[in-house]
Amino acid sequence: MAKIDPKVFKGERLGRILRRLGRCSREQVYEALHLQKERKGRVGELLLELGHCTQMQITEALSLQRGFQMVNLEGRTIEEDVLSSIPPETVRAYGVVPLKYDPGSRRILIAMKTPDNLRAIDDLSQLMDFKVQAVVAPAEQVDALIKEHFSGATDLGQVLAKAEDSNALGALSSRGESIDLGVIEEAAADNQIIELLDLVLRIGIQEQASDIHFEPFEDQLRIRQRIDGVLYEMAPVRKHLAMAIISRVKVMANLDIAERRLPQDGRIEMMGRDLRVSILPTMFGESAVLRILDREVVS
């Protein structure tokens, strides 16, 4: 697949892009446009129906129109640290594959099956703090890589253990409640905390929980989800991680992480759901309750 600069075609009409790429003729585009006046429908679909273009050619043109490079992933080898940058549940939920990842800058390159998968880019940027660049690849190639590398499930216990064993987060255990704002911000942006909270929320959504509770106690933070009216324990978390986790919830909900004495309310958008966030101060620190609502029902 020849490399084509998407900047040259971004914003152009689809028919013009296909003609400039040599995928169809001017007459064939006019035929599709004439048919569009009679039947409505999209030009790409009509060109496909008329047999003037293939689905791959249409996807390539749509990708370039939206500023995305079309790439071939056949025979592509992905490094192990790149594969582990996004949890399998996230990869499968959004239908994307990580191709490159720089942990220092959190820049990540992902391959998508279609150029209209903007939710994947937005959620990975907002919820997991990635600086996302995206390309488009044939759907069967993306699906093959997902099946090969991401068919398993992420174990919540393993993710939690990594966070609890982190030296950077372990330093929080000796600081008590009087922690500088800079330290709180750094803890909320820690990769282990981001991965842990993303997985907890994703599990709650997938298991159709109505709400998720983060409840601080004297020696631990309890995470529970409510399913069919019953609260189920998800994971007990060591006390020193509580502030980092609650602060991460605040960051995702655009709340003030410096404010720890007053209640706060916000919202998070994730996987087509609205998560209504309620933060409350308690005797042992702040608690958080996330109410999970279907966005279509809310609207």
Set down the secondary structure blueprint.
Elements: H1 14-20, H2 26-39, H3 43-50, H4 55-65, E1 69-70, H5 80-83, H6 88-94, E2 96-102, E3 107-112, H7 118-128, E4 131-136, H8 139-149, H9 156-165, H10 167-170, H11 181-188, H12 191-206, E5 211-216, E6 220-227, E7 230-238, H13 242-252, E8 264-270, E9 273-282, E10 285-294, H14 295-298
Parallel strand pairs: 1-4, 3-4
Antiparallel strand pairs: 2-3, 5-6, 5-10, 6-7, 8-9, 9-10
Helix pairs in contact: 2-3, 9-12, 11-13
Notes on the protein architecture:
This protein is of the alpha+beta class. It folds into three domains: 6-65, no CATH class; 80-149, GMP Synthetase, Chain A, domain 3, CATH 3.30.300; 156-298, Beta-Lactamase. Helix content is 42%, strand content 24%. The chain contains 14 helices and ten strands. The protein is elongated. The mean pLDDT is 88.
Sum up the structure in keywords:
6-stranded antiparallel beta sheet, 3 domains, elongated, GMP Synthetase, Chain A, domain 3, 14 helices, 299 residues, alpha+beta, 42% helix, Beta-Lactamase, 10 strands, 4-stranded mixed beta sheet
At a glance:
With 299 residues, this protein is an alpha+beta fold. It has 14 helices and 10 strands.
Largest sheet: 6 strands, antiparallel
Number of helices: 14
Q: Could you tell me the mean pLDDT?
A: 88
Cα-atom radius of gyration = 23 Å
